[in-house]
Design goal:
Elements (H helix, E strand, L loop, with lengths): L8 E3 L2 H11 L6 E8 L2 E6 L2 E4 L16 E5 L2 E4 L4 E6 L2 H6 L15 H9 L5 H5 L4 E5 L5 E4 L3 H13 L5 E8 L2 H7 L9 E5 L9 E8 L4 E7 L7
The structure holds 2-(butylsulfanyl)adenosine (IVH).
Length: 236
């Protein structure tokens, strides 16, 4: 990627989200955008190349999968014919209808839409899948965006969660962004995430486990400690 595609900082409660909001809001009326945190494969389409995010620096060129992919962007649904940044997913309705008939290469059905996306992405040859009517969707991150002020957010939180959860896309949380793009940009980024956005992860599943050791991951300019944990079951 010409510029690294970063990750997002994470919050696990409304309190943690509000701590971030209070840190960066300039007035109580600061506008925020609330979006689904899509659970798929992050991808970028520009100059007719579709690439995964990968580790943020090096992605994978998946342009050969374009015939399988439909873009959903504000006011548009159809072939990928414009630059877009978003997530490749299978819509919940498509998974229920199409993928109950589509058989994997070795036979059998895909267990869930996330497996199916990964499976399709790993194929060398997509003709069989096209023949079976398989379809993937690149959801532009701008597609669904609920505007709310910093001050209103706590009282509208529950309703916003409900509204977003009814959307037909696999998601594992919300993304909260500062609506003022120039302001968000001016805050810059750490090596891991931009400061102008945060992810709220759906998860009430937590477990305690043992730290077995630490391995150092050698990056370009930094060393990142990686925790080795004793495996623990978390909702399967
Ligand atoms: S904005 C650096 N908006 O979640 C800003 N990302 O865990 C990221 N993601 O790397 C782009 N839904 O791949 C954005 N509505 C959304 C998103 C979203 C899912 C992905 C994205 C990011 C990862 C962080």
């Amino acid at each position: 990627h010409r510029t690294p595609l970063l990750s997002l900082d994470k919050a696990y409660s409304l309190d943690e989200v509000m701590a971030w909001v209070d840190k960066y809001r300039r007035t109580p009326d600061e506008l925020l955008l609330i979006e689904p945190k899509y659970d798929g494969i992050s991808a970028n389409y520009s100059d007719r190349v579709l690439a995964t995010r990968g580790d943020g620096v090096d992605g994978e060129d998946i342009s050969d999968k374009l015939p399988l992919i439909e873009l959903e962007a504000p006011g548009y649904r159809g072939p990928l014919n414009r630059p877009a940044r978003g997530e490749i997913v299978i819509r919940d309705d498509d998974f229920r209808t199409l993928y109950s008939h589509i058989t994997k290469k070795g036979g059998g059905l895909y267990k869930n839409s996330r497996n199916a996306v990964a499976g399709l992405m790993g194929l060398k040859e997509i003709d069989d899948m096209l023949g079976q009517g398989a379809k993937l969707t690149l959801v532009d991150y701008d597609l669904i965006s609920i505007q709310v002020t910093a001050e209103e957010l706590p009282k509208r939180w529950g309703a916003i969660l409900e509204e977003i959860e009814t959307k037909p896309y696999p998601m594992d949380g919300l993304v909260i962004k500062l609506a003022d793009h120039a302001y968000a940009e001016s805050l810059g980024a750490t090596s891991h995430h931009p400061r102008g956005a945060i992810a709220y992860k759906f998860t009430n599943l937590r477990a305690e486990t043992k730290l077995l050791g630490v391995e150092w991951s050698f990056g370009k300019n930094c060393l990142t400690p990686v925790a080795l944990l004793e495996p623990v079951d978390l909702g399967g």
